[in-house]
Amino acid sequence: MTSRFDNFQARRHGARYRARGWWRDTTILDDLRAAAARTPDKPAIIAARSFARDVATISYAQLCRHVDRFAAGLVELGVGREDIVAVQLPSWWQYSALALACARIGAVLAPIPVDYRRREVEFVLSRTEAAVYIGASTWLGFSHQGMVRELAPALPGLRHRIHLGASADLEGPELDFDAFFAQDHLRRHAAELDRRAPGADDVFLVMYTSGTTGEPKGVIHSYNTLHAITRAMIESASLGADDVISSPGAMTGLAGFLYNCLVPLQSGATAAYADLGDPDGGLQLLAQHAVSLLYAIPTYVLGLVEAQRRRPARLPSLRLVVTGSAAVPPHLIGAVQGALGVRVLALWGMTENGGVTFTWPDDPPDWPTQSDGRPIEWMEIQITERAADGSGRLRVRGANQCLGYFKRPDLYAAAVDDDGWFDAGDLVRPDGRGGIRIVGRLKDVIVRNGHKVPVVEVESALHAHPRVAAVALVADPDPALGERICAVLVARDPAPTLSDLRDHLRGLGISAQYWPDLVHVVADMPLTATGKIQKYVLQDQLRALRARGG
Amino acid sequence: MTTSPPSRDPARPVEATIARHWRELLGVDAVAPTDHFIQLGGDSIRATLLANRIEDELGVRPGVVELFATLADVARHCEALLAEAAGGDA
Fold this sequence. Notes:
- The complex is a heterodimer.
- Chain A is built from 17 helices and 28 strands.
- Chain A is globular.
- In chain A, helix 3 packs across helix 8 and helix 9 (223-236) crosses helix 10.
- Chain A folds into two domains: 10-380, ANL, N-terminal domain (Rossmann fold); 447-547, ANL, C-terminal domain (GMP Synthetase, Chain A, domain 3, 2-Layer Sandwich).
- The N and C termini of chain B lie far apart (36 Å).
- Chain B is mainly α.
- Chain B has helices at 13-26, 44-58, 71-85.
- Chain B has one domain (13-85): ACP-like (Non-ribosomal Peptide Synthetase Peptidyl Carrier Protein, Chain A, Orthogonal Bundle).
- Chain B is globular.
- The chains are: A alpha/beta, B mainly alpha.
- Chain A binds chain B through residues 50-51, 53, 115, 140-142, 276-281, 299-300, 303, 306-307, 310, 449, 480-481, 497-499, 502-503, 506, 512-513, 515, 517-518, and chain B through 1, 27-30, 36, 38-41, 43-49, 51-52, 55, 61, 63-65, 68.
């Protein structure tokens, strides 16, 4: 059978990775079935909805039935093997069940973050040629149903739009999620489900991640690459069936999907998550559902510490906080120890490879403030182009590594060499214990609240504003968001205000998480000899301004 | 985007206080009672920070969920919490 995906990793390394036990011949569906056979009544998912103020508890046996029900519905819609299903839902239990329903029939999940707006959603839907879009009707006051309704005429491949919470207001081919999946599609398609079961080297996920230059990249993962990543997270934190695992990260992102879905399932544990991802609600979730392991970005962990100081909750079950995606501030370790009574482990990874390096329980407790960890057994790291102090460019390879970028093999080829080393784009130095410390970035990146900002895309959108003559986005350190987005402008009179710029970006359909947080007007841009804006000079200017309290 | 006048009604001190925190947290120049937290770029992290600031300044703490609303609605909610804290029949 021909495939729309090229699994170079499996052809070249599959036999060796299997021989070492890093890859396998089963999928996450087999983990689900095994857990359901062992502990049918145990909660697989505890999912809290912040606005509806309710909690859904789904047992392993129930989850199996929902997965079959959703899978049969997808078959009814004509979804075939390797067809892409786009899902833009908050972290509700249906997200996990839909992801597994895709896995049940060999369809490919393409998550879209809920805060993505017209421009980003259109890009993902048109690039993936998704036949099915499943989204909330509305979320946080925004109508996804209306947005996709507007986009649909330009997306001929999009045959079905299914909205959760939509029953009253359906138009044309739109379907109500609950009504559609409540139909007995299983009666007709039950036999079809097993026939379509994917192999372990088939593709499970195409996850779009903000490009730093130009368009977002669709990172392709197979069941096996995700298995290796999941196992790395399980082993680094010694997780087992007795754990209750939680992350405030959205399940449309890799960390949220791993810690709220794949990691708990593969361990036969319980996932506990909420749809808003605020520290107050998170603290309640930890206390009420006896969460034992939390994964969150450092700024969230500090928010949780603050919430606990204001309104202490009893957390006898919590045993570990894992953090990643940004440097761990030195005071975080002590703050977590003091307020939550547990230690912190850190990891480093990307959407392309999940978790590569981890700090370990046998490291000193404050080690995450000095190190991003040592690699898991099945990932190799290399520091190249070393400077005198030992720092250099980080490259990685191994069983976690993705299969490529969907429909952009050229972009992926540019990041990987002939021996499979993937250039992570980070500047690192050895940590002295066999691991690495990230010391800087080689790419033009802003990471705001754990999300990479597509710097070039936002800059070109801002440049289209009639009173912007030149623009550069630079990172501005911020305790709450990690980094804020500062738009440095050369403006035509009168200079646009921050509100003007945001209105402009909203009008272009760019999601709010990419809007500038502050604006700084300059007379002219510092340029290199070749005419490129020198962002480090702008960053120094901003730092000087801040130091003067400006 | 917004045509209604900025909130500086001296008769609504709670609204004025919250408007100040919105301006600081959301980085906007002016806010009107009809402006919605999300429309100005608010998210769950900022909602939590806003709840912390309101608690520190007014002594009552709105739920994070209640902050995903218009400025006028958030102010009314906080006024109700203050009335409740003052004895329930204020």
